[in-house]
Design a protein that fits this description.
Blueprint (H helix, E strand, L loop, with lengths): L3 E2 L4 E3 L6 H4 L9 H10 L5 H4 L3 H4 L6 H14 L3 E3 L5 E9 L6 E12 L8 E2 L6 H14 L1 E2 L3 E5 L5 H9 L6 E4 L5 E7 L2 H12 L3 E5 L1 H26 L13 E2 L2 E2 L6 E2 L2 E2 L28 E8 L6 E3 L2 E5 L6 H8 L3 E6 L1 H9 L6 E6 L2 E7 L2 H6 L7 H4 L2 H10 L10 H4 E4 L2 H10 L2 E6 L5 H9 L10 E3 L9 E2 L1
Parallel strand pairs: 6-11, 8-16
Antiparallel strand pairs: 1-5, 2-3, 4-5, 4-10, 5-16, 7-25, 8-11, 9-10, 12-13, 14-15, 17-24, 18-22, 18-23, 19-21, 20-21, 20-23
Length: about 475
Amino acid sequence: MAEVKPFSAMRYNLNQVKPENVVAPPYDIISEAKSRSLYERDPYNIIRIELTQPVLEGCTADGRYEKAKGHLGEWFGKQILYQDKKDCFYLHELIFDHPFLAKKLTRIAVYGRIKVEPFSKKVVFPHERTHASPKIDRGKLLQAIRTNISPVFFLYQDPSQVLAKIYQSLLAKKPEMDFTDDMSIRNRLWVIDGENEIRMISSVFERRNIFIADGHHRYETALGYAEEMRAARQEAIARTVGSAAEVKNVIPECFNRGSISQLEPNKCNGFPLPRKDGAGPCFSQGKDCGNDSPATQPWDYALGAFVPFDDPGLLILPIHRVIRNSISADKERLLANLKASFNLRAIPRVMIDKIAEGDMKEGFGMAFSEAECFLLELKEKSIAKEKMPAGKPEDWYQLDVNLISYLIVEPLLKITNADLEKHVTYTPDVREVFKHLKSGEAFCAFFVKPVTTKKIKDICETGEVMPQKSTYFYPKFPSGLVMYRH
């Protein structure tokens, strides 16, 4: 099963900076305006490493990765960043308001490093497909800085409530970090360094499959990075000893960028060595890292934030579909064609909120305006399945997003997969949807129910993945809170 270990995190020195000024949202939800704002907020904001801006940095697009590496080295030198001296787990509490309902939620996660495994091994399960371009970008950054700046968001089963019990024991202690970010989310962080607690947490994962909630591109980037580093290491050692056959008998010197390196005595890859005892996330004193077997190295692991499936603060928002007015479509013709597969019922605007909140068990919503809202319920499941790809698990056929895609968007609205970005907008915010409709930017919109964690788990364990834009886990974990240096 999964191998999740404690690690010595790289963290901000809170004697030098305020955490609320230096953390940032994940790179993939940062707008250009937000990026500029983070740059201006603090010269040590993690945005300068996570999403380096060539225009603001005075470098080329390809040069931004080396610029990020330069920032990381400089900040280490100035002791803006430091490395913990022992391997720990880290518990992160997020207290936040539901973005659309009047209620407050608390979510907890434990940060650790997970051994990255190919999906074919059925240890780590994805729940959606990825695109190539973000992985190329993240891969170049990882090769340059050799550090996970933000975690992959994982889900796991914790029937014995191990994490919840440890969390309760920590509440009496002062957290190492306590701040409110610019989304009004309170973040508190505790270090878990007790041998018994570390053993308890590690043992939970030894018996569990792990599911990616968010951060698929980061995980697949880590997989590719590990494969490249292993291959480069073997090649470098083979060059040094003369033949690949002798590699297994060699204890290599410190490995750096695919070659055996002549390093400064107290530096590795341009950074101060964080440890003097040979353990930790960096090669030290001419030996492999003491914490890992010869078969594994620090780059075989990635930073993860692990949340139990049954955490009461685990919030999954639905992602609604807004059909832009860029298509050629007729409202009356669409309504008539929908009746072939669905029972249509006019509903008041308030029922759309009920659908989005998960209070409706069957059907999904459609609207042309706040005054024209409908509930669509499937007439015959077997006929619908005939119009969808064969060989999928039963839960997959029941997903609202699949019914909309295969029974409406492509056959009735004539929007192919290649044209989705041009004609469809996605948002978890019902209010935003109706703004698009009111402004005339949108022809119509479809409102879906939230997907349950059970349905995600059941679909993923069959080897299937969810359609893209099926889930929105809220809130995202910040970048720069704790980092894992390879």
